[in-house]
Design a protein that fits this description.
Number of domains: 1
Distance between the termini: 32 Å
CATH topology: Rossmann fold
Number of helices: 5
Oligomer: single chain
Shape: globular
Largest sheet: 7 strands, mixed
CATH superfamily: P-loop containing nucleotide triphosphate hydrolases
CATH class: Alpha Beta
């Protein structure tokens, strides 16, 4: 198993979309409605279980979403293996920002990223939804990424997001220089052997 420092994962998105809450829910199992905004970036490590005999250690960078920190965020992309782009389903502005991030990632960092995941957060706020499934679906398909709708408050889809991140890392070099199809782990993939390909999953 590679060290967490070698399996770098970055969370990006507008301030207040729930990046920190998603990470805390996975790591500690709690949810704080008054979660303070991240300043600069925060780092944590996790061991993610894919199945009973497979575990991936990851290092997670939780970046600040305020515009004044945008110039710093590219620094955290260095040697990153997976990017998780988060937006708030009840905020059009955050969806627009997510689209911008996906374009930046695709244009500047796709050469060494193994894959990326799009997450629509706060799916428990059903009556406040501003972004339709079709819109998010279309954006995810455009960039060939998985799309999850999740809630840090209820815990819906949180485990699935991190398991998908772990699968992207597990199924890509340098974990295996040449991955035998028999050795691959699959989960929520629309195509066998393409665990970082486009798919849509809603747990709410």
């Amino acid at each position: 198993m590679l060290a967490s420092s070698e399996n770098k994962v970055i969370f990006v998105g507008l301030s207040g979309v729930g990046k920190t809450s998603i990470i805390n829910k996975k790591q500690r199992g709690d949810f704080n409605i008054y979660q303070e905004a991240t300043i600069g970036a925060a780092y944590t490590t996790m061991n993610i279980e894919i199945d009973s005999d497979t575990e991936v250690s990851i290092g997670v960078w939780d970046t600040a979403g305020q515009e004044r920190y945008d110039s710093l965020t590219p620094l955290y992309f260095r040697n990153c293996r997976v990017a998780v782009v988060v937006f708030d389903l009840s905020s059009r502005d955050s969806f627009d920002k997510a689209e911008l991030w996906l374009k930046v990632i695709n244009d500047k960092y796709s050469g060494y990223l193994e894959g990326y995941v799009l997450v629509g957060s706060k799916c428990d706020k059903v009556n406040n939804r501003k972004v339709s499934v079709d819109e998010a679906h279309t954006l995810a398909e455009k960039y060939g990424t998985h799309y999850y709708e999740a809630s840090a408050k209820t815990g819906e889809c949180i485990d699935d997001i991190f398991r998908q991140v772990a699968l992207i890392i597990f199924n890509a070099p340098p974990v295996f220089k040449e991955v035998n199809s028999i050795d691959r782990k699959t989960f929520g993939s629309t195509k066998t052997g393409r665990e970082n390909c486009y798919g849509y999953y809603s747990c709410c």
